[in-house]
């Protein structure tokens, strides 16, 4: 966490999901994408390729102990699950 605090960029949605994922001890970061896909399938529009919705797990790359978005965060629009309720 020190490296993140000193030199990282924090993307709020990704940070909240990482905190929630690590809330259960013993989880392996290598399982993060699978967890996102099965537990948090939030719709996202990639403004550079807005022909289809995608999900956060398709835009996150985990390598060892590093997690990064594969697209620039400012080009992504997250569709809130709250906004989809009742549809």
Can you characterise this structure?
This protein is 32% helix and 22% strand. By secondary structure, it is α+β, with helices and mostly antiparallel strands. The chain has one domain. The chain has a 3-stranded antiparallel β-sheet. A hairpin with a 2-residue loop joins strand 3 and strand 4. It starts with a helix and ends with a helix. 8% of the residues are buried.
The total of helices stands at 4
Q: Indicate the low-confidence ranges by residue numbers.
A: none
Report the mean per-residue pLDDT as an integer: 85
What's the SSE pattern?
HHHEEEEEH
Number of domains: 1
Structure class: alpha+beta
Gross morphology: globular
Q: How can the largest sheet be summarized?
A: 3 strands, antiparallel
Q: What is the quaternary state of this protein?
A: single chain
Please report the distance between the alpha carbons of the first and last residues.
39 Å
- Read across the widest sheet, the strand sequence of neighbours is 2-1-5
Radius of gyration, in angstroms, nearest whole number = 14 Å
**Total count of strands:** 5
Features:
alpha+beta; 4 helices; 5 strands; three-stranded antiparallel β-sheet; 32% helix; 87 residues; two-stranded antiparallel ribbon
């Amino acid at each position: 966490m020190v490296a993140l605090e000193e030199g990282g960029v924090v993307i709020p949605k990704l940070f909240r999901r990482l905190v929630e994922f690590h809330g259960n001890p013993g989880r392996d970061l290598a399982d993060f994408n699978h967890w996102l896909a099965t537990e948090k399938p939030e719709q996202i529009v990639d403004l550079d390729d807005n022909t289809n919705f995608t999900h956060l797990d398709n835009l996150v790359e985990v390598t060892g102990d590093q997690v990064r978005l594969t697209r620039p965060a400012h080009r992504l629009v997250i569709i809130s699950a709250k906004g989809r309720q009742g549809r």
